[in-house]
């Protein structure tokens, strides 16, 4: 066997090794990112944009209906496992704050029949707006750091965008976020300080 042939065989062997290693490493990255932890970030938009989407009855609803209240806007989908796991926490928050100027609003990037079925099965009662690409477009309007679902936006009483989270919220983190939002709504913290605190996670 000539030296040229041996060199060609070695070259092909090394190429296969690098290819297999790359595929293995890529698969690990995909598995690790399947359920990403919450990622805080500073808002790139200062005021809540105009949002109008259909509700569960296919009636157009504007986000301005909840003006004057602090809002937790949660983008989700029925096919998103972390979204489904997070919803009981958001439902509990909705029930706890029923008599306060605070509302949880779900925005489903999904098909209406699937959302209706899921909401009926789970008994979720906080307001829901539904779209498919329209809902994703709204989520992406908050900036390029929107990496996936669930995605939450925290809004002050005058529509100030206070902070963002990509990933499911946990009870302890949500408690800290609510305390920060409450301090801002009560005039006990400035907008800049509130955004900085929420961005720091």
Please render the helix and strand layout as text.
Blueprint: H1 3-32, E1 39-41, E2 52-54, E3 60-62, E4 70-76, H2 81-96, E5 102-109, H3 112-122, E6 128-131, H4 133-140, E7 151-155, E8 161-166, H5 171-185, H6 191-200
Parallel strand pairs: 4-5, 5-6
Antiparallel strand pairs: 1-8, 2-3, 4-7, 7-8
Helix pairs in contact: 5-6
Walk me through this protein's architecture.
The protein has 6 helices and 8 strands. 45% of the residues lie in helices and 19% in strands. By secondary structure, it is α/β, with parallel strands linked by helices. Helix 2 links the parallel strand 4 (70-76) and strand 5 (102-109). Helix 5 (171-185) packs antiparallel against helix 6. The chain has helices spanning 3-32, 81-96, 112-122, 133-140, 171-185, 191-200; strands at residues 39-41, 52-54, 60-62, 70-76, 102-109, 128-131, 151-155, 161-166. It has 2 domains: 1-34; 39-200, Glutaredoxin, CATH 3.40.30. The model is unreliable at 11-35 (pLDDT under 50). It has a 6-stranded mixed sheet with strand order 1-8-7-4-5-6, with helices on both faces. Strands 2-3 form a two-stranded antiparallel sheet.
List keywords for this structure.
201 residues; alpha/beta; Glutaredoxin; 2 domains; 6-stranded mixed β-sheet; two-stranded antiparallel sheet; 6 helices; 8 strands; 19% strand
